[in-house]
Amino acid sequence: MLVNGEQGNSISIRDRGLLYGDGVFRTLNAMHGKARHWPLHYQKLQHDCTALGIACPDMPMLSTELDRLLLQHPDGVVKLIVTRGGGARGYAPPAQEATPTHIWDISPLPDYPSDRATLGIKARICQLRLSRQPRLAGIKHLNRLENVLAAAEWSNVESSDEDIAEGLLMDAGGNVIEGIRSNLFLVLAGALVTADLSRCGVSGVQRDRVIAWAAQHNMPLQVRDIRLDEVWHADELFVVNSIIGMWPIRELEQRSWIDFPVAAKIRRDLDGSQT
Amino acid sequence: MLVNGEQGNSISIRDRGLLYGDGVFRTLNAMHGKARHWPLHYQKLQHDCTALGIACPDMPMLSTELDRLLLQHPDGVVKLIVTRGGGARGYAPPAQEATPTHIWDISPLPDYPSDRATLGIKARICQLRLSRQPRLAGIKHLNRLENVLAAAEWSNVESSDEDIAEGLLMDAGGNVIEGIRSNLFLVLAGALVTADLSRCGVSGVQRDRVIAWAAQHNMPLQVRDIRLDEVWHADELFVVNSIIGMWPIRELEQRSWIDFPVAAKIRRDLDGSQT
After folding, report:
1. For the residues B134-139, what does the mean pLDDT come to?
2. Across residues B262-272, what is the average pLDDT?
3. Which of A272, B78, B155, B187 could form a disulfide with A92, with the two C-beta atoms 3.0–4.6 Å apart?
4. In a shared domain, residues B241 and B262
5. A126 shares a domain with A99
């Protein structure tokens, strides 16, 4: 673990990342000493920092630190957090640009059942509705209580269903937005459909990669509001993120799917690509 | 500064307070070794912890720690943070109830101009609109990016106006909700009016005290949606929180007020009360 380039596993209790969730993060997959799609993650990090007015640490420095980390821990889930740093008490960002805090952490790769990518997962629709905040939409920021509450819906003891691998989130307007920790795609009438993230949701690297794949393969792609009704009628559903890769959904509430030919093709293409 | 009862000024980078803003906080005023309205703050803390499913540290323990803190620092702004603690990677709260992290910090009392309570402040209407999330409404949680972005509207260099002491926040539906760091009251046609906080906003201790004051003094009080138009037509406006106490608003955008007889009476009564 590195905090501002030094070995360490703690931050100040006055860091705005803790006080206000005033920061952003990325989660990457590292295998054999290589972090997958690091340049794409850096682009997102930079975009998100800019959106919040945080000075993004520069890429050469972060890359050097990442290399150091991977030398010690070649495989794992890498988390990079950038907060606005410390400063005077109060919500207002410091008048003098604060020195951001940047944190690297690495955890063991999760041991998800390997057949999830091929056989698909069981998912549910969360009761929690995402709020709409255009100023924060798309950003992978540290204000993640909605995700926590949504994940808690079926992880507490009474309603525990360990078989459920992801929850789908709708917004207050009834649109289907994403998974708790993933982006969602529908295969619908020969097109790929994914949610418009201009009011809520997190725009992930893997979502961008699927969108790019569609362009390369002349597959129609729609980024737009998605009604729940369309989810039930989709030919295929799949979720993506940088750790799980891609999981098709085989069971969602009372509806089930058996084949995922489009998802399978995209997954094979994306798994083989290093970009 | 105390972290889990021990002297310390740092927390783990794996604390969910940092990772997800998964926690709550209180801010209290300490003078002459006494934290004002600590029992009321504890009630709120407990309420907010329960709402998020966090095990609230018990009051005797916290009171003992607070006393220790105040022995060393009898005057200041006391901040108490309770997070869900550490645990496994991922949004879902740990299946076994995590041990919450609790943090005490104390900062010097701010040196606000003393005439703000009598002459009133200049305030502005923020451009940012609060999102609506009934599951988090009223809770003083650590997801405060909306407050940060709102405060940044006039604290950055180009549009800096140091004279502006508070920003008022509206929600996405056009209702006036609160100040960035305070609750708002209107004196309107002989009644006190404050916003319904069931969809957004933070319910503060001082707001409760004003509401209790109204009941004691048979002053009509309405907790309801407030349209911006009503703000312009209010006889008085004032904001409250535990650090500033009460500040009337003398100037808001193009509108100004001169006298604040109701605010002044409430302030005198509340300042004199220790409950």
Report:
1. 98
2. 94
3. B155
4. yes
5. no
Nearest to B152 by CA among B173, B128, B132, B136: B128
Is the Cβ–Cβ distance between A196 and A163 less than 8 Å? no
Under 8 Å CB pairs connecting chains A and B tally to 177
pLDDT interval class at A157 (50, 70, 90): very low
Structure tokens at A210: 């699927």
Query: Global pTM?
Result: 0.96
Per residue in B144-192, pLDDT (tens digit) is: 999 999 999 986 544 556 689 999 999 999 999 999 999 999 999 999 9
Report chain B residues whose CB lies below 8 A from the CB of A52. 145, 148-149
DSSP type of residue B10: E
- Does one domain contain both A164 and A208? yes
Q: Do A52 and B21 count as a contact with CB atoms less than 8 A apart?
A: no
The residue of chain B nearest to residue A109, with distances taken between CA atoms, is: B89
Q: Do B53 and A156 touch (CB under 8 A)?
A: yes
Dist CA A207 CA B142 (whole Å):
28
ipTM of the complex as predicted: 0.96
In this model, does residue A270 exceed pLDDT 80?
A: yes
Which residues of chain A have a CB within 8 Å of the CB of B95? 155-157, 160
| Partners of residue A27 on adjacent β-strands | A79
Share of chain B above pLDDT 70, in %: 96
CA distance A92 to chain B (A): 5
- Last residue within a domain, chosen from A84, A107, A130: A107
Measured in whole angstroms, the distance separating CA B67 from the mean position of its chain's CA atoms is 22
CB-closest option in B91, B110, B136 to A151: B91
Scanning the structure block, which residue is given the tokens 């004032």?
B238
In chain A, which residues have their Cβ closer than 8 Å to the Cβ of B52? Answer: 145, 148-149
